[in-house]
Amino acid sequence: MKAAPPAADEPDTSADEPAPAPRTRAPGDVTPKRTVAKKTVAKKTVAKKAPAEKPADEPVAGDATPRGSAVADRPGDHWDRKVAKGLAFLRRRLAGDYEVDEFGFDPDLTDAVFHPLVRLLYRDWFRTEVSGVEHVPAAGAGLVVGNHSGTVALDALVLSTALHDRHPARRYLRLLGADLVFRMPVVSEIARKTGGTVACNPDAERLLGNGELVGVFPEGFKGVGKLYADRYKLQRFGRGGFVSAALRTGTPIVPVAIVGGEEIYPMLADVKPLARLLKLPYFPVTPTFPWLGPLGMVPLPSKWLIEFCPPIPTAHLRDSADDPMVVFNLADQVRETIQQTLHRLLERRPDPFGP
After folding, report:
1. Which residue of 60, 108, 235, 301 could cross-link 222, Cys pair, CB 3.0 to 4.6 Å?
2. What are phi and psi of 70, to 5 degrees?
3. Residue 232 and residue 122: Cα distance in Å, rounded?
4. Which residue, 209, 216, 218, 198, is CA-closest to 249?
């Protein structure tokens, strides 16, 4: 039997029913229910909030590198690039993807191996200062003539690398070397690969005719093997073969003076009997060699100065290439220009091992 509905004027007491008794908090429970509810609501609010769109270069949490920035900004990427460059070089060598000219010059090997090694010497060890690079032709043939010294001919290597680094056109210097250099098994290969060739007129004229920049040291072994007491005193320039090559091709001659090479291995004596036995032009005795063995081959850290002098034109003298007097006078002019420049540079550098 259904219960009768309450009268219209009878008050509804359902809302006045007493609420259930609150649960007694257990001992040790210190977290109020209201606090938990607030945390839950906060979580819901965060979940419902749409994340703001970040710009491309805003850093991500836990990532120190901004998005969109170059990978090079990461620490250690300098070595990563070196490793990648080395691997690319090996791939080119294994695949044969490089060029070698008729003289054996390998620009790829020179840029990747030879120049970086010599760069450590001339820039960091010798602290080389180079001036007058604007006198070297920007294009076309040029004959660079320098003084030779140092017991070991490091001046030729330093000159070629410094010129390549400082010249705006990054030109290679094709060095002319003595026959002895190209009779030595390993040295001859390195010389050929880095652009060197025998110091003879036919090769020099061919290079100059191709518009190359050629470097020559007319003193030869007389300059490299002179005693320390004769430092920075130019030896005889031979018969002037370099002048004849320049005259026949109408190539300008650029004298260059190099200060610093005489101090790297100060030659105190020359043991001639031992040199003849070993078939060498000289056998040097220095403050460190042969007393220290292989350590004696470490060059002393002298301060280097290299200055290129204004070029001497030869185009108007092409018809006089076989005239001994013209050749001698021009060779003497080049020699005197280098000698005077050496004196001036030595005045600028009173301390051979200064900063």
Report:
1. 235
2. -70, 150
3. 19
4. 209
Alpha helices in 141-216 (DSSP H): 154-166, 185-193, 201-209
Q: Is the dihedral of CA 139, 143, 149, 154 positive or negative?
A: positive
Q: Is the pLDDT of residue 45 over 80?
A: no
Residues 332/160/158/84 CA torsion (nearest 10 deg) = 180
Helix axes 324-348, 241-249, angle to 10 degrees: 110
- Rounded CA gap, 82 and 129, in Å? 27
Q: What is the pLDDT of residues 19-44, one digit of tens each?
A: 444 454 444 444 444 444 444 434 44
Q: What is the CA radius of gyration of the chain?
A: 39
Q: How many residues does the chain have?
A: 355
Cα–Cα distance measured from residue 240 to residue 217, given in angstroms and rounded to the nearest whole number:
11
**Residue partners of 133: CB distance under 8 A and separation at least 6:** 163, 166, 167, 168, 308
Dihedral (CA of 299, 301, 305, 306) sign: positive
Structure tokens at 293: 């063995």
- d(CA 150, CA 121) in angstroms, rounded, equals 14
- Please report how many Cα atoms fall inside a 13 Å half-sphere around the Cα of residue 161, on the Cβ side: 22
| DSSP at 25 | P
Contact (Cβ atoms closer than 8 angstroms) between residue 241 and residue 216: no
Residue 28 identity (one-letter amino acid) = G
d(CA 272, CA 281): 8
Residue 243 CB contacts under 8 Å (≥ 6 apart), including other chains:
253, 314, 327, 330, 331, 334
255 - beta bridge partners?
145
Reduced to 3 states (helix: H, G, I; strand: E, B; else coil), residue 312 is: strand
CA dihedral 29, 33, 39, 41 (to 10 degrees): 160
Determine the 3-state secondary structure of 325 from DSSP: helix
Burial of 239-254, coded b for 16+ CB within 10 Å and e otherwise, reads ebbbbbbbbbbbbbbb
Residue 191 has pLDDT above 50, yes or no: yes
CA 338 to chain centre: 27
Task: Inform me whether the pLDDT recorded for 59 exceeds 90.
Answer: no
